[in-house]
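hey so i finally got around to running the thing on that chain from the lab meeting. sorry it took forever, my laptop kept dying and i had to restart like 3 times. anyway pasting the input first so we r on the same page abt which one it is
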Amino acid sequence: MATSSQIVQYKKQKLGGGEMKRGSKSLRDLPVDVILKILSFLPTKDAIRTTILSTSWESMWTILPSLTFIEWKFEKRDLFMNAVERALMLRGRADIKEFTLSCEVVGDAIRVNTWIYAVVQRNVEVLSLVLPKFIGPISLPRSLFTSTKLKVLLLNLRCIFRVPSTICFTSLRRLTLSSVVFSDYNSAQKLFSGCPVLEEIFLYRCNWENINLVIISAPKLLRFTIDEGDLTYVRGSNGCHIMIAGVTLAYFSYMGQFLDEYLFYNSSAHEAVIFPKSTKRVRQLSERLCKLLVGLPSMKHLTISHTSFEMIQSKTSELLGHMRSFTNLTTLVFGHVVVDLGCKGLSTFLQKCPCLKYLVFCEGIVLYSDDAKDDGMLEPLPPCFLSSLEEIDVLEFCGLEDELRAIKVLLKCARVVKKVNINWRSGMSYLELELMKDLSKRLLNFPKGSKKCQVVCPCPSSVFVSSPILGWPNVNL
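ok and heres what got predicted. didnt touch it at all, straight out
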């Protein structure tokens, strides 16, 4: 490698005009590999500043394997521009492993493109381009899209993205697109079709408003993350149909208002994280959420907000009722908001999870008095409560009556559960700690539908565990 040869040349030189002597304390007498190690821990801007320390350090930073240039960290734009060009010029043909460029592009697109071209020619493997202000559509160097060395690519462009006629990323494993606006179907389709070994995609605030359909079919794709952020479309836009075809993902994550429709075709994911955001277009969100869930029949782990089912139940209850069962789903996690155990949509969805083993309420659980049944039972009782549900976790527990009511119902309805973990909300005051102890004992004495059920309710100074046989608490275990 060219970088290695430069290091060898440095080592052959007499640092500071003479051989390093035993016991020398001068910075200029440090071995080259030690200097490079020190510089690798510094931001590029600070590494440049080390040139004043010794003549032997003057150009050392230019052969670092990783370079990061962020414009706002420099006092003036001219200093930033000169630093980038100096680094690329002084390192000659030495390879660059990682390169990050973050700057505005105002009237000097040709200059920035020259840098990107130079980096690609130096076999860059990890490339991050953050170009927030770019006047007009952006056209990156053609050589970037046929790189055989590039493994990780991040593009944050915030403008219309144009791609060349030929795209072939033979080594690209991870692709991140942020604020990209695709001009047409061909641009988007060429990009995703030109990544045969892609393993991970992350899309943030990408605008598909100009496209009706795009198909993402990467045979080795394992992780797919979509975050719409604060993206909005013009009124009347139905967005894009984004189809994930022919892959089995290890992980799929979505957060947004379902401005676009996501469909799995001959595809699925083992783990899914879905957090819809509130929107005025509730019916559209409900329909698209249902279609997304239907396309994930083989998922084993689902993290979702229970308000999703509230929205579906209020607008498209017939879709939720006709949804097929998720027979592979063993772990269901509710996040972001407190779960209302009396939610009809939640009850309907639990009916579709016959093999559920692990149920988690990350933000706590409540059952309001108006929703509670006279006998304290869920109706109809989810099948998993009778045959498979082994463990329930309740986090952020505060001890309110609505929470106690929910816990009581869960303990009574879960007929085969082995363990119920109740974790108190952090940051309790001293007075609240005393109340926690009393409430913990009360929790442990609630009737249980399972004879093997063990309730664990840890306090700061002790752990309360109920006996699965005797039903009374053992303290300070």
